[in-house]
Amino acid sequence: MLLIHCPYCEQDLPELEFRHAGEAHLIRPAATDEVGDEDFEAFLFLRDNPKGRAHERWRHVHGCGRFFNAVRDTVSDKFVVTYKAGAKKLALKGGEA
To answer: Is domain 3-95 classified as CATH 2.40.50.100?
Structure first.
């Protein structure tokens, strides 16, 4: 079973307690009425899907209920690190994602 570390509860818990919530560190355009349709469509629907390490958002649904960020290797499905929401995007070695 895959264990995921919740940075708020400070525990490694089974993956069944968590839900994937998409790509991390997305910034909604400030003035959506001034953004063109194609740019807003890209914000809403287009996501990176790298092979290797990716920044993701997760939620501890069966625990504290809080969202947090993680760096996960999409090939091995292993979590490299988890960190609290609102923290700066972690730089990855070798210029990845």
So the answer is: no
